[in-house]
């Protein structure tokens, strides 16, 4: 099984993300506000934008009624830098508007302050 | 585009000016009003939040912090060199267009002239690949014609840019613009400005506004055709910019069917509206809906011509279309037309 240290835990604050290399692949390492790490292919499934140039933020949820906004999930949503599609970090990188589409993801574990990505 | 080696002609690139950059091109007292009195253009659009960086691609901000589209070197690096553009047509981000500004015609006229000079000096003359658009302030018709005459003969100016808002450009009052454009081998480019849908008002949501922009493009096309602009100016062409393209078969069918019933009202039309469209109107592709190859091919068949569509990125805006990802795979011949040859055939001043 291929695995690789992609960065130190201290390099990414909760609520932030960063591009890294996993072999030849460009991966996006994300850290949610609870301190957990996640990794996805750093390329939007739509037209291929580099996701690390977008942002991690929250989202308005679809439980809202017309005219009603609820903003939550802070630090758990990746928004693409181009057309702004939203991907749910804690739900396998699924797109909010179309959960059948997801960002290709990698497994991640932390050992001694090393963030390790593996297949 | 490396696979088939097509060098693209990008028909919609938005360069952006900052007022400090055009001060030197402005005559007094207009320079004074900007420099000392903080004049700025009115802003209309109530929703500037569609994506992560407002209406721009978040990765297009110039590294030193200046707004997207304001630096030629960065545009070269991120767009023109990276994709290997053959040509790009500049369409500006002078919001709103001088023709859409309210009141103070003199300032709108001065701003359009300064912008044209800045565009020529800082973009067209600094990069061989870039071609430009003549900006005018249509409120003062005679001054606008003088501006077309002043810069229209520049070898790299390819079109006169008219905003789509609440002005219907096919009205005979504006025909002198077309006469001046034709004289200088300029085409007309139309790009929506603010607010072209909802009867001059804004809907509640950006998603409504942005969904319905093609309706504004259809209105201008019908208006230009039925007012006889293309019969009166047979060498004139119209490029509809940034309205997408899936609306084209609909408006062609609708106009043809209406023409069969109502020809008597517009007897100057010598051709079927769809033939006028095929001969004199072109449409940029962005923002492209996600179509399958089959859907895309079928649409082209419905248009009855594969010479209408001209690829555009809309760089550096948030709804940018990637040349490799936005349109489905297509046959190499068709691809060549859409990505390069149609635009070259349309603009007389683009090298063939
Ligand atoms: S490329 Fe990411 S939303 Fe379009």
Describe this structure in words.
The complex is a heterodimer of chains A (119) and B (352). Chain A has 119 residues and is mainly beta. Chain A has a single domain (3-118), classed as Rieske [2Fe-2S] iron-sulphur domain (Rieske Iron-sulfur Protein, 3-layer Sandwich). Chain A has no helices and ten strands. The radius of gyration of chain A is 14 Å and the shape is globular. The mean pLDDT of chain A is 96. Chain B is α/β, with parallel strands linked by helices. Chain B has a single domain, classed as TIM Barrel (Alpha-Beta Barrel), CATH 3.20.20. Chain B contains 13 helices and eight strands. In chain B, helix 12 links the parallel strand 7 (281-284) and strand 8. The longest helix of chain B has 20 residues, at 105-124. Chain B is globular. At the A-B interface, loops of A face loops of B. The complex binds FE2/S2 (inorganic) cluster.
Q: What kind of oligomer do you see? A: heterodimer
Question: Structural class of chain B, please?
Answer: alpha/beta
For the biggest β-sheet of chain B, the strand order reads 1-2-3-4-5-6-7-8
Query: Main β-sheet of chain A, in a few words?
Result: 6 strands, antiparallel
Count of separate structural domains of chain A: 1
Provide a quick synopsis of the model.
Chain A is an all-beta fold and 119 residues long. Helices cover 0% and strands 48% of the residues of chain A. In chain B, strand 2, helix 4 and strand 3 form a beta-alpha-beta unit.
């Amino acid at each position: 099984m291929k695995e690789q240290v992609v960065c130190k835990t201290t390099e990414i604050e909760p609520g932030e993300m960063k591009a890294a290399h996993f072999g030849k692949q460009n991966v996006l390492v994300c850290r949610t506000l609870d301190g957990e790490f996640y990794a996805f292919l750093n390329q939007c499934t739509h037209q291929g934008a580099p996701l690390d140039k977008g942002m991690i933020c929250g989202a308005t949820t679809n439980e809202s009624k017309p005219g009603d906004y609820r903003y939550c999930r802070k630090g758990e949503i990746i928004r693409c830098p181009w057309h702004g599609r939203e991907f749910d970090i804690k739900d396998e990188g699924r797109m909010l508007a179309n959960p059948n589409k997801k960002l290709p993801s990698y497994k991640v574990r932390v050992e001694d302050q090393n963030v390790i990505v593996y297949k | 585009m490396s696979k088939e080696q097509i060098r693209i002609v990008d028909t919609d690139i938005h360069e952006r000016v900052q007022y400090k950059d055009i001060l030197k091109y402005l005559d007094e007292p207009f320079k004074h009003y900007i420099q000392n009195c903080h004049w700025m253009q009115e802003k209309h659009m109530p929703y500037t939040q569609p994506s992560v960086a407002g209406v721009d691609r978040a990765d297009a901000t110039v590294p030193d912090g200046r707004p997207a589209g304001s630096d030629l070197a960065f545009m070269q690096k991120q767009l023109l060199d990276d994709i290997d553009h053959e040509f790009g047509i500049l369409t500006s981000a002078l919001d709103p267009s001088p023709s859409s500004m309210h009141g103070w015609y003199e300032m709108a006229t001065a701003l359009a002239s300064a912008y044209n000079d800045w565009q020529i000096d800082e973009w067209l003359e600094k990069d061989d690949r870039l071609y430009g658009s003549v900006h005018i302030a249509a409120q003062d018709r005679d001054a606008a014609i003088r501006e077309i005459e002043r810069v229209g003969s520049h070898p790299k100016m390819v079109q006169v840019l008219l905003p789509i808002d609440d002005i219907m450009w096919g009205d005979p009052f504006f025909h002198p613009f077309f006469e001046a454009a034709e004289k200088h081998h300029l085409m007309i480019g139309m790009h929506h400005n603010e607010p072209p849908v909802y009867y001059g008002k804004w809907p509640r949501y950006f998603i409504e506004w942005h969904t319905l922009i093609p309706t504004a493009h259809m209105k201008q096309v019908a208006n230009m055709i039925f007012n006889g602009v293309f019969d009166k100016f047979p060498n004139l062409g119209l490029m509809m910019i940034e309205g997408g393209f899936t609306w084209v078969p609909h408006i062609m069918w609708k106009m043809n069917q209406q023409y069969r019933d109502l020809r008597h009202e517009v007897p100057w039309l010598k051709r079927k509206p769809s033939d006028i469209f095929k001969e004199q109107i072109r449409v940029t592709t962005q923002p492209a809906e996600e179509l399958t190859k089959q859907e895309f091919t079928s649409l082209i068949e419905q248009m009855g011509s594969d010479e209408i569509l001209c690829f555009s990125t809309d760089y550096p805006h948030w709804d940018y279309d990637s040349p490799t990802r936005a349109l489905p795979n297509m046959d190499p011949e068709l691809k060549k037309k859409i990505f390069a040859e149609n635009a070259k055939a349309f603009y007389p001043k683009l090298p063939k």
